[in-house]
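Recap from last week: sequence in, structure out.
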Amino acid sequence: MEKMWAGRFEKALDAKADDFNSSIRFDYKMYAQDIKGSVAHAQMLAKQGIISKADCDKIIDGLCGILDDINSGALEIDMRSEDIHMFVESELTKRIGDAGKRLHTARSRNDQVALDIRMYLRDNVSDIVSLVKELAGTITDKAEECKAVIVPGYTHLQRAQPITFGHHLMAYSMMLLRDISRLEDAVERMNLSPIGSCALAGTTYNTDRRFEAEALGFDGITLNSIDGVSDRDFCLEIMSALSILMMHLSRLSEEIILWSSWEFKYVELDDSFTTGSSIMPQKKNSDMAELVRGKTGRVYGNLFALFTTLKGLPLAYNKDMQEDKEAIFDSLETAKMCLEIYAPMVATMKVNKDNMYRAAQEGFINATDLADYLTKKGMPFRTAYKTVGEIVAECIGKKCVLDDLPLDAYKAHSDMFENDLYSEISLETCVEKRISEGGTSVGSVESQISYVRGELAK
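Predicted structure tokens:
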């Protein structure tokens, strides 16, 4: 297949070099964006009198026919082409003749690919945001079911204080809201059209870049033609937002894996989201959560790979920048795959409320509330802290919990203790007393749920 740039060269490109140079095997994904961008470019050229209205109509009819045929399967993308831009242009010229050769007037593949990738990312990030919203809604629904379910809260993976499972889950809903915001912010900054920057210096033709940008749904144009073709900040920003999103999914996955274990037995994943062992018939493995945890490293790797590619590049365009697509495409596809599996996995997850409550009864997680009890009666907090520490040590020695220690034993440590201490350190009271905004009381969790649902509805 003859190259569009073949005029300067006396020899054909080496076959292996040709394959090495080609990007069609991954940039073919942008065929719809490439065709849409070319339709707008033809309209602009005709509006400015750079090509005739008749040629514009032929070009648009030809491009729409190519798009329909690719979508229907009637036209197969030729993987011998150098890239998707050359494939579309070559196919267009085959179909409509010389009019097709006029399409590339006043543009370069440099600004064309910069345009296509922005449009492709804009479309795909919109899909990702929808999936994140779905997951946040599913987690919030599960949190509402469990807004009064008491479970140990942990720090350092040690039992710390009693909380509700709904409160714990809502922490992830809040994380996902930030993920949505980061992705939307990144798209807003990205949504400027580079087309018309040409190779790097602009063009001598009297183009209307803003018309073309508006036709393609951009908020404006890039204001420096060198920056327009060499900028890939938007790829890094979206990949960074995806990396943070994957980190959140990975943290939740780690907890689900722990909660599913025999050592915790807090939750049980549905059979449809678990697998078994080839040798151990008793096993029920949380493989979907483990895969999400593993794929997080893949998304991180893509981000750092592109950072490394871009760090030493002189302006403007360099062929190194072809490496942006495989990295960002893989990050998008990986995140999308993980999100599609996550919402139904959480929705079908069973919560073992009794196991959670029994775990909360152990570990002295109401010790802080016992110290607060003394503090509210006038004892300085540090003194109360020390006193309760001594009581905990006594309970450990006697192999009992704070709730079971007799009042006489408490009074041996301080006369401030009265019978009301037992109601003050009950798990239900410990949870309901956390009335500060954002805390674990049922009312607070209900407020968090209402807030998240309001944000998701916007």
